């Protein structure tokens, strides 16, 4: 067995889609809309060769965006593995340029991973 996808409710569906396209080259795999319920989603593929991860970004008018503590119960983070240190450094540069809060990065923890609070307070780890 394997996890087919992870779903995340967001307020700004287009912004979330563009975030994952811009940072990871994600592609829209499928679009699912229920006009009668005002529910909309994109299933995004983040692919590196044979390995494919899918992320479902969803929205509907009832979504409540509350302050999210990074130590909250529930889904803790999403970790995306990139294929090189150069790609990781590129993403770190984007995270810094976009002003997201960085919890740690390779320069401070000695590893090959960054952890940051990103778009709509999604805690994201990127490693290589």
Number of domains: 2
Fourth CATH level, the homologous superfamily of the largest domain: 2,3-Dihydroxybiphenyl 1,2-Dioxygenase, domain 1
Rg over CA atoms: 15 Å
CATH architecture level-2 label of the largest domain? Roll
Which regions contain 5 or more consecutive residues with pLDDT less than 50? none
What series of H and E elements makes up the topology? EHEEEEHEHEE
Average of the residue pLDDT scores: 90
Q: CATH topology of the largest domain, anyone?
A: 2,3-Dihydroxybiphenyl 1,2-Dioxygenase, domain 1
Give the DSSP E fraction (strand runs of 2 or more residues).
35-45%
Percent of residues in helices comes to 10-25%
Ends: how far apart? 24 Å
* Widest sheet, order of strands: 1-4-3-2
Q: What is the global morphology?
A: globular
Count every beta strand, where a strand is a DSSP E run of 2 or more residues: 8
How many helices? The count is 3
Structural class: alpha/beta
Report the sheet with the most strands, covering strand number, pairing sense and barrel closure.
Answer: 4 strands, mixed
List its salient traits:
single chain; 128 residues; alpha/beta; 2,3-Dihydroxybiphenyl 1,2-Dioxygenase, domain 1; 4-stranded mixed beta sheet
């Amino acid at each position: 067995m394997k996890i087919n996808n992870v779903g995340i409710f967001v307020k700004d569906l287009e912004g979330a889609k563009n975030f994952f396209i811009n940072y990871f080259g994600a592609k829209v795999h499928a679009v699912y809309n229920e006009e009668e319920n005002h529910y909309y989603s994109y299933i995004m593929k983040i692919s590196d060769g044979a390995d494919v991860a899918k992320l479902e970004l969803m929205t509907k008018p009832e979504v409540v965006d509350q302050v999210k503590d990074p130590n909250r119960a529930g889904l803790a983070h999403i970790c995306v593995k990139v294929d090189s240190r150069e790609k990781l450094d590129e993403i770190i540069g984007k995270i810094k340029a976009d002003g997201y809060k960085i919890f740690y990065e390779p320069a401070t923890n000695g590893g090959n991973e960054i952890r940051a609070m990103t778009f709509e307070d999604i805690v994201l780890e990127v490693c290589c």
